[in-house]
């Protein structure tokens, strides 16, 4: 029986954060009040993840030392949702101790064909978070990058910006620029 079938009602974020998972792992998200297990990533996904973390982390260490990359931490876009993006960049002072990042300015998701619908649903939720100004989507089965950036009036674009394989990823939120190929260096 799934964890969702054992719950008599929707689980709020506070209860989810205190919940003891059935398998003892922390690879769970809260989706509209229902806990959902996350599958481990593929080797390609993990390689892109590592390169993105290295590129962003090195840039922040040199140019924005008050910012940090967060891996494996959750965000809460609403009372009944906790999502775990692949990477986030937080620019607020480190609060420590909590399981949720509260001031992510950049979120990076790595899109796999098996979870495409869930990833795009998460992207739509990230757009509701006031601190988030950019969302970078790196595809795992092809060299393909999409970028969404909040406009000056606070609105999000209807369609993502497609960054060509030979192009540059420019993240205004952290003053970062690197070739698309750098994210895919090891694959």
In spatial order, strands of the major sheet run 3-4-5-6-7-8
- CATH architecture heading: Alpha-Beta Complex
Cα-to-Cα separation, first versus last residue: 38 Å
Helix content: 10-25%
CATH class equals: Alpha Beta
Helix-strand sequence = HEEHEEEHEEEEEH
**Mean of residue pLDDT?**
92
Coarse structural class: alpha+beta
Number of strands: 10
What does the model show?
The chain is an alpha+beta fold and 187 residues long. Strands 3-4-5-6-7-8 form a six-stranded mixed sheet, with helices on both faces. A two-stranded antiparallel sheet has the order 1-2. The chain has a two-stranded antiparallel ribbon with strand order 9-10. The mean pLDDT is 92. The chain has a single domain (41-183), classed as tt1808, chain A, CATH 3.90.1570.10. A hairpin with a 2-residue loop joins strand 1 (28-31) and strand 2. The N and C termini lie far apart (38 Å). Helix content is 22%, strand content 24%.
Features:
single chain, 187 residues, alpha+beta, tt1808, chain A, six-stranded mixed beta sheet, two-stranded antiparallel sheet, 22% helix
Please describe the topology of this protein:
Elements: H1 13-18, E1 28-31, E2 34-37, H2 43-63, E3 68-70, E4 87-90, E5 104-111, H3 116-126, E6 134-139, E7 145-149, E8 161-163, E9 168-171, E10 176-179, H4 180-183
Parallel strand pairs: 5-6
Antiparallel strand pairs: 1-2, 3-4, 4-5, 6-7, 7-8, 9-10
